[in-house]
Amino acid sequence: MFDLTGRVALVTGANTGIGQAIAAALAEAGADIVAVGRSPATETGELVLRAGRRFHGIEVDLSSAARAGEIVREAVAQLGRLDILVNNAGIIRRNEALEFTEDDWDSVLNVNLKTVFFLTQAAARQMLAAGGGGKIINIASMLSFQGGIRVASYTASKSAIAGLTRLLANEWACKGINVNAIAPGYIATNNTRALRSDEARSREILARIPAGRWGEPRDLAGAAIFLASRAADYVHGAIVPVDGGWLAR
């Protein structure tokens, strides 16, 4: 039920961190991979090819949604189909709410929400035109459930991703498209480097995580494979925390 052989997955932000780990995991489960991001996903490509799967990279700035349709068309032209979309690419800006700028607001919302919606729309149109369903996996956050501090636009975007996941599930479940999300806890990636470098803040975070450690990108692999597979055919609109127990505490 977890075999993805013959499927094609498009993963955004797949050059490092969570996106790379998910792309590699889906390839190990049998999927061919299209990696989308601002920089070459050379290392990710090597991992995919090592797993015996096909790979295609697309370099594009996701701060604009203008190329969403083009990205999907290129993926299909290169690998023949599109079955899975993982909306992982995201950015973060940190500042006090009283000092937050319009640029920091727009930059984050454009990548984390606007482009996610229109890329998902383009992918769903392709899936339906091809006569089948598909799996869409959004990357939410602990801040889809909580407010956080100093990350106003990021919190807004990830709260919106939770709502968008549910809305699209409501509209598309009957069409055979599963829309779900993974909410990573505190994972050791570029986005959390500032937190991990702050000794006091890092200590506070670790004290609340029952697992007693920061997560690694690879910790998200199982949830991604599950939601991309036939095992999740009756799972719609779920937001799956992979957080070391953070929300339970």
What's this, in brief?
The protein has helices spanning 17-28, 42-50, 68-79, 102-129, 152-172, 193-197, 199-208, 221-228; strands at 8-12, 32-37, 55-59, 84-87, 134-139, 177-184, 239-242.
Tell me about this structure.
This protein has 249 residues and is of the alpha/beta class. The chain has a single domain (8-241), classed as NAD(P)-binding Rossmann-like Domain (Rossmann fold). Helices cover 42% and strands 15% of the residues. It has helices at 17-28, 42-50, 68-79, 102-129, 152-172, 193-197, 199-208, 221-228; strands at residues 8-12, 32-37, 55-59, 84-87, 134-139, 177-184, 239-242. The chain has a seven-stranded parallel β-sheet with strand order 3-2-1-4-5-6-7, with helices on both faces. Helix 1 crosses helix 8 (221-228), helix 3 packs across helix 4 and helix 4 packs parallel to helix 5. It is globular, with a radius of gyration of 17 Å. The chain starts with 7 loop residues before the first strand and ends in a 7-residue tail after the last strand.
The chain-level structural class is: alpha/beta
Q: Could you tell me how far the N terminus lies from the C terminus, measured between alpha carbons in angstroms?
A: 32 Å
- The 3D shape can be described as globular
Q: Tell me what portion of residues adopts beta-strand conformation.
A: 15-25%
Mean residue pLDDT: 96
- The level 1 CATH classification is Alpha Beta
Helical content band = 40-55%
Total individual domains: 1
CATH superfamily membership: NAD(P)-binding Rossmann-like Domain
Number of helical stretches of at least 4 residues: 8
Number of strands: 7
Radius of gyration: 17 Å
Which ranges are low-confidence, i.e. pLDDT below 50, for 5 or more consecutive residues? none
